[in-house]
Amino acid sequence: MATQKLKSLAYIGTFGISAFITGTYFERKFSPQHNLKNPQDSPIFSTVFAATAVSPVPSETNVGRISQIMKYGFPGLDNVRSFDNFVLSYDKRNRVAHWVFEHITPECCKPNDQVDRALSEFTPDESIHPFFRSLNSDYYKSGYDRGHLAAAGNHRVTQKMVNQTFLLSNMAPQVGVGFNRDSWNRLERYVRRLTRTFKNVYCCTGPLYLPRKEANGKNYVKYEVIGANHVAVPTHFFKVVVCETKDGQFEMESYVMPNQVISDDTPLTSFMVPPETIERAAGLLFFDNIARSKFSKINHKKN
Ligand SMILES: *[C@@H]1O[C@H](CO)[C@@H](O)[C@H](O)[C@H]1NC(C)=O
């Protein structure tokens, strides 16, 4: 039966994103033909600039880098903050970012003796109003990791870049063992490895707070909050990745993982969901500046 298949195939199905999944998705994902083990397969700069509060780098350099990172569109415009090598939109109510955006290149990821993440410290982001800022004390004894949204390993060019990924505005409460330190990390490493094939990899990462059906048959969004600042614990996290091919085509991959212990042998492809599903759930539009017809592949499938 379909229910049976759903249970065995996808974590996602069991954790509530199904509410957002269109018929098309079910068709695609759970049709017998689809084998998971063997997948076939602007004007906004003023806003960004004004929001730049952290790095006193020469503004021209920074604006150039930001326009590169955000070349294919901002997913949303709420409290956008730019750092040396990534851009973030901050959700003041949940005290976690809405999204972070990275442009990942081979140069950003290659080992560099000049930087050491062990020298970085988790630091409250002073550019955020104290009412909305998360603190280390919020995470202390919460049982959750301070999980990077923009991964430290994607920013190895300077120590300052790595340091900026340790700002608490780039953190979200993540289950440690089995998620942040395991399967989520596996996904981050996979995205990093894409730079071996593609010169330009764009990655948008963020939290989701997805509804679940309760015993009375109604859907509720329920999530824990931690610490004195009530930092929201996302139910899921997403990554939408776009790779630019040499001939100017684009390939997109989009993933949703539940913020739970995930078995290490669960293939990453089983977390793929259509980008539209994430857009609806997150209230964001990804890579809006690229016509969807320009994507030669979406989630390994010919578009
Ligand atoms: C990185 O962070 C550490 C720890 O806060 C600090 O000692 C160091 O000076 C920072 N380095 C740079 C280049 O910002």
Describe this structure in words.
The protein has 303 residues and is of the alpha+beta class. The chain has a single domain (2-302), classed as Extracellular Endonuclease, Chain A (3-Layer(aba) Sandwich). The chain is 25% helix and 23% strand. An eight-stranded mixed beta sheet has the order 1-2-3-6-11-12-13-14, sandwiched between helices. It has a two-stranded antiparallel sheet with strand order 4-5. Strand 2 and strand 3 form a beta hairpin. The radius of gyration is 19 Å and the shape is globular. The chain starts with a helix and ends with a strand. Residues 1-58 have low confidence and may be disordered. Bound molecules: 2-acetamido-2-deoxy-beta-D-glucopyranose.
Question: How are the elements arranged and paired?
Answer:
Elements: H1 2-9, H2 11-14, H3 23-30, H4 45-51, H5 59-69, E1 80-82, E2 86-91, E3 96-104, H6 106-109, H7 136-139, E4 144-148, H8 159-165, E5 171-175, H9 176-180, H10 183-193, E6 200-208, E7 211-213, E8 219-221, E9 225-226, E10 231-232, E11 236-244, E12 250-258, H11 275-282, E13 295-298, E14 301-302
Parallel strand pairs: 12-13
Antiparallel strand pairs: 1-2, 2-3, 3-6, 4-5, 6-11, 7-8, 9-10, 11-12, 13-14
EC number: 3.1.30.-
Family: Belongs to the DNA/RNA non-specific endonuclease family.
Domain DNA/RNA non-specific endonuclease/pyrophosphatase/phosphodiesterase: 82-293
